[in-house]
């Protein structure tokens, strides 16, 4: 049996006083909760493969965790693990966006299939992220992989492991500075299975700015 252990970390809280839908906006992370960063770092494996997305909040979170661990690893950037693109909704207050949607808009009944203007749906995120996870699991078989990513990405990983569709996966809460542990297990015959060890273990608290 070959086990590849995924340690999914959602980035630290973003500096977002206006409560904007930020999606792929490149906002900074607040890594100032030293106790939370240290507690999370203490749970992570040593000499792991580290991945992050192209957005600075994952780079800053990974750097803070690695500093707390005393490791000099440089995480690889994986574009396929980036957050959902909210298109024209990005940069607008979430309340404004949702209040403007008509009562019978398809978003309310089938949110995973709904894409903001110029953006992507959560179903599209699943189709983007899940093949990348499979390829990375093959590339780093038998290793520990720490992936600092986003709520949408981690929901997609959990959906792959639990065989969830997009609607069900959107019910999962993934907090900032949380840890989700998932194993990919492959037998010598090539049969593949998944094991969810932990989901959304909290190490920080969303800050109000």
Structural notes for this entry:
With 209 residues, the chain is of the alpha/beta class. The chain has a single domain, classed as Rossmann fold (3-Layer(aba) Sandwich), CATH 3.40.50.1240. The protein is 33% helix and 20% strand. It contains seven helices and six strands. It has helices at 34-43, 56-69, 94-99, 106-109, 122-139, 151-162, 166-169; strands spanning 2-10, 49-52, 76-77, 144-149, 178-186, 192-202. A six-stranded mixed sheet has the order 3-2-4-1-5-6. Helix 5 (122-139) crosses helix 6. It is globular. It starts with a strand and ends in a 7-residue tail after the last strand. The model has no long low-confidence stretch (mean pLDDT 95).
The average pLDDT is: 95
Strand neighbour order, sheet with most strands: 3-2-4-1-5-6
CATH class: Alpha Beta
Q: Uncertain spans, ≥5 residues at pLDDT below 50?
A: none
H/E topology pattern: EHEHEHHHEHHEE
Assign the CATH topology. Answer: Rossmann fold
Termini gap: 47 Å
Beta-strand content: 15-25%
Specify the structural class.
alpha/beta
Q: How much helicity do the residues have?
A: 25-40%
Give the CATH architecture: 3-Layer(aba) Sandwich
Count of strand segments:
6
- Helix count equals 7
Structural domain count = 1
Q: How is the biggest beta sheet arranged?
A: 6 strands, mixed
CATH homologous superfamily designation: Phosphoglycerate mutase-like
CA gyration radius, whole angstroms: 17 Å
Shape: globular
């Amino acid at each position: 049996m070959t086990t590849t252990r995924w340690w999914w970390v959602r980035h630290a809280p973003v500096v977002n006083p206006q409560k904007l839908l930020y999606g792929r906006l490149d906002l900074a992370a607040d890594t100032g909760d030293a106790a939370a960063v240290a507690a999370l770092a203490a749970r992570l494996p040593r000499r792991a493969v580290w991945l992050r997305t192209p957005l600075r909040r994952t780079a800053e979170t990974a750097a803070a965790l690695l500093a707390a661990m005393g490791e000099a690893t440089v995480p690889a950037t994986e574009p396929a693990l980036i957050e959902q693109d909210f298109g024209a909704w990005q940069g607008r207050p979430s309340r404004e966006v949702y209040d403007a949607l008509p009562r019978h808009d398809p978003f309310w009944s089938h949110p995973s299939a709904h894409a903001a203007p110029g953006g992507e749906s959560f179903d599209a995120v699943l189709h983007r992220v899940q093949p990348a996870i499979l390829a990375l699991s093959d590339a780093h078989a038998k290793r520990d992989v720490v992936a600092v990513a986003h709520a949408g990405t981690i929901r997609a990983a959990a959906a792959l492991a639990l065989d969830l569709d997009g609607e069900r996966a959107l019910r999962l809460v993934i907090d900032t500075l949380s840890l989700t542990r998932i194993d990919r297990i492959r037998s010598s015959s090539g049969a593949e299975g998944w094991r969810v060890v932990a989901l959304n273990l909290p190490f920080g608290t969303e800050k109000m700015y």
